[in-house]
Amino acid sequence: MFSLKSGGVCPQCELGKLKEEIKDLNFKYKERIKVFQQEKIFACDLCDYEGLDQDADKRIDKELTDFRRSVD
Fold first, then answer.
1. Where do the domains of the chain lie, and which CATH numbers do they carry?
2. Is 27 exposed, middle or buried (0-12, 13-18, 19+ CB in 10 A)?
3. Residue 52 to residue 27: CA distance in whole angstroms
4. For 22, phi and psi rounded to 5 degrees?
5. In the β-sheet with 18-29, what is the strand arrangement from edge to edge?
6. Cβ-based neighbours of 13, under 8 Å, separated by 6 or more
7. Is 18:44 a contact under the CB 8 Å cutoff?
8. Which pLDDT belongs to residue 58?
């Protein structure tokens, strides 16, 4: 697994450099929307890759699982 960090190599294209950005992440499930505000992501300067660091990915995955359960 690639370790995402600012200035690191993009895991998708392996050519671009990652830069840190802050943005809102929106997820839609059965017409309901969950928003994660002001999340730190890593975006490639050449391709359309965007990724989260491992800790944020685990946290968001758990919250999305709980969100889907509450909707169902």
1. 18-71 (3.10.20)
2. middle
3. 15
4. -115, 125
5. 18-29, 32-44, 50-51
6. 44, 46, 47, 49
7. yes
8. 94
CB neighbourhood size of 46 (10 A):
12
Q: Which residue type occupies 64?
A: L
C-alpha distances (whole Å) from 71 to each of 58, 60, 62, 66 are 20, 16, 14, 9
Reading the block at residue 64, the tokens are 């999305």
Please say whether the beta carbons of 63 and 70 come within 8 A: no
Residues in the chain: 72
Query: How far is Cα 12 from Cα 71, in angstroms, rounded to an integer?
Result: 33
pLDDT in the model for residue 14: 93
Collect the ranges in the chain with pLDDT lower than 70: 1-2
Structure letter (DSSP) for residue 30: T
